[in-house]
Design a protein that fits this description.
single chain; about 325 residues; alpha/beta; 13 helices; about 10% strand; elongated
Length: about 325
């Protein structure tokens, strides 16, 4: 059908704005905060839209899980450690709010360097040209010897390395997730892919020890997930590895007859990746519970989450 020229809109069918369903109303608007407002005031002032709705709801679900004695487990990428958030996580462990932590291999590298020297995160661009990236002697020796020590003691990577740090009384153990968790009796499991971490290129690396201790950690993590009913799992800053590990652990737990249907999950990261959205937020909660995507920088969102959760519990 050919266009005969400009359309005449005079016969356009209209309807009343007052009768039309609308997604946004003034009752859901944000409220300005007065000076000296509390965290509860801040949460109550958010617009009831998108993250303004989801973030308070996630806080409430986490608080309910903790009050009901159910676990809150963190799965963390190394960036959480690198931006200085260990004190926030340690505080949640000390208060009994975080009941277990899962780390990737990069996480234990940065955490161990902090324990040893109080600093971490080298300038890769400055050293990779000369083949020096990841060649810090103390890092390779400590992480690998800690894993070997743990494997000989029948411990996973997390517990073995945590105990090794404690035994050697490094100067900054108080800011190490591994050391403090071991001291507090909080399980830390570590999930590595061979060749992804700088310690795998060091002469102390023992593939058999990494494999046996790492597999034990996966079994321990699977046991933790088997008891997740009514609890929560937060994936913070892991785009691929930990979401895959979580989904496999949930699968084997259900396969072995454990009821893990109604729980809370959340992915916190500064961009949205496919695997966390699918393997943490969406698929696992299809039978019940609720999954959340919280997009924002870790150095802002994690302290905010922790502060609001503690305030809600108080």
């Amino acid at each position: 059908m050919s266009n005969s020229g400009p359309l005449d809109f005079k016969d356009l069918k209209t309807y009343s704005l007052f009768s039309r369903p609308s997604k946004v109303g003034v009752e859901s608007f944000a409220r300005p905060l007065a000076a000296g407002a509390t965290l509860a005031d801040f949460i109550g002032s958010l617009p009831d839209q998108l993250l303004g709705h989801d973030f308070p709801e996630l806080i409430n679900r986490l608080a309910a899980a903790h009050k009901n004695g159910r676990p809150i487990i963190l799965g963390m990428g190394a960036h959480v450690i690198k931006v200085g958030l260990n004190p926030i996580i340690i505080d949640l462990m000390e208060k009994g709010i975080v009941s277990a932590i899962a780390l990737n291999g990069a996480g234990i590298v940065h955490d161990s360097e902090l324990a040893i020297a109080g600093k971490t995160s080298e300038d890769v661009a400055a050293v990779i040209g000369e083949g020096a990236f990841g060649a810090a002697r103390e890092t390779g020796e400590t992480v690998n010897r800690g894993i070997i020590f743990g494997a000989k003691q029948g411990l996973g990577i997390g517990a073995g390395l945590g105990q090794y740090l404690l035994d050697h009384d490094f100067p900054h153990n108080d800011l190490s997730l591994l050391a403090r968790a071991r001291d507090l009796g909080v399980p830390v499991t570590v999930h590595v892919a061979m060749g992804t971490d700088i310690v795998h290129i060091h002469p102390d690396a023992d593939g058999a020890a990494i494999g046996s201790a790492g597999h034990l950690d996966f079994r321990i993590f699977s046991g933790l997930i088997a008891d997740l009913e009514g609890g929560a799992y937060l994936n913070i800053g892991s785009a691929v590895l930990l979401p895959e590990v979580f989904l496999k652990a949930l699968t084997v737990a259900r396969n072995l007859g454990h009821k893990v249907d109604n729980f809370t999950t959340a992915n916190l990261d500064f961009i949205r990746h496919y695997r966390p959205m699918t393997n943490v937020v969406s698929r696992p909660t299809m039978a019940g519970g609720r999954g959340y995507n919280i997009t924002g920088h870790h150095e802002l969102m994690v302290p905010l989450l922790a502060a609001c959760l503690k305030d809600r519990l108080d």
